[in-house]
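Note to self: the last two entries modelled the partners one at a time, which told us nothing about the interface. This time every component goes in together.
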Amino acid sequence: MLRAVGLAVPFQRAVSNVSLRRAPAAAFSTSPAAPLKQMPPRPKPPPEEDIEEYFIHGSGPGGQKINKTASAVQLKHIPTGIVVKSQATRSREQNRKIARELLAAKLDILANGDQSRTAIVGSVKKKRADSAAKKARRKYRKLEEERARTEDSAGVDRRDDSAAGDQSP
Amino acid sequence: MPRLPPSLIWKAHSISPLAATLLPVCRNIASALAELRWIREHVQSTSRSPSGSQADDVRLRRLCRERGKGVPLQYVLGTQPFGDLEIKCRPGVLIPRPEPEAYTTHLSRLLVSGHFIPRHQPLRVLDFCTGTGCIALLLYSSLCSSSPRLAVTGVDISPLAVSLSKANLKHNVALGLVPSPSPSQSVTFRQSDIFSPHWSSPVSAGGHCDVIISNPPYISPRGFATDCSRSVRNYEPKLAQVPRPRPDSGVAQEDVFYARLLDIGAAVKPRVMLFEVGGMEQAVRVVAMVGRKLGTEEWEVEVWRDWPDARPAEEEGTTVLVDGVGEVLVRGSGHGRSVLVYRM
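The predicted structure of the combined assembly is written out below.
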């Protein structure tokens, strides 16, 4: 306990020093925060009367005689015939919940297509990934161009480069 | 057990050498990969060193080797989920199965809805052969909100089981999964041999009892040799599965606990009793025993299958004819798994 306190105090001081020094430069931003886009709510699972539930434990006598570790849950939505299965966790109760969420998502896609939560979340994620990839490409193109420029202007000695490369692991 | 084809072992090995280690006990690649994932998650979540360290790697490989030899996964990981609870498992005490999870959940829903006993009445529950304490703890945690005065007692002959069930109460209270016991709501465990001539019921001192539940040993010595899986036979306690023979009981060796439990039921007069059984044949024998020992004028009987709240399959009957009792209702889907005895 004593040692933890002893460690924590200098660390806090160091942090506060840094923030004090940097505060005036970057404490406030004048541009408005980008509004968070509201995702559609998670779809609700269908009523239990529409679901047929199976527990897959394999064949055999069951009970005390066997000890199965998997507790897969399979659901069938009777009106549409959609089947989902979950064996993500060791817990039957958890798998039942997960399977119902999966089924709700599938029914949402079936009913709402492009406007379903899965599609919207997917498109937002894809947009984010695309923009990150674009930024990365831009950054490396710029670095490449800069290096080319300095090499051209200074006439870098090739042997120096390779020696440095050998030292790095 | 059929030999694993070498091609399957190679295929598992090419995905992960550890999956190949688990293959002899898992038997197929999908479940080997699932178990590998759970073991890896367990190692990461209980690790004391920075992630990806060599100590974790060594431990992961050791646990996989243990599991590959046939040690039950629950003993390797130390826990098994049961309803919303996390039950600690140790060698010497039977591991909780999904079937008791299903019938305990179903019974607790019926009790919460006031099906057998009016809601908010004081409720006293006895769980015989409690083992890890899983059934007692799940009933306690699901009845706490609807029964302001609740007392659950788990009884077992094995001191190992009693100490583990007490540890499980502490563990689940610490995790916030079970409400902390209070003077008006309690769950306790005690060591006791219900066949002992000096045995006295925990409620004999002027108290009453509303619910008796039990998952007793119910496998015959022959069934133990032929039907039990190898991992169960080699690593789980036989004490919890095969009853000791009692020639004076007048019933088959695998049924001796039901005879004793029904005698206790006749004396204590609970409102509800639920006993796990090993299949429909044993269920029919237990129902007939209820007819002989308690009579069916005051008592109603049902048989529940593995999943009592599931829709029965087309070939599964919804009644069964029992000598001396008549047609008995059968609920749910799967093997005959428990016998419900109640009086309204």
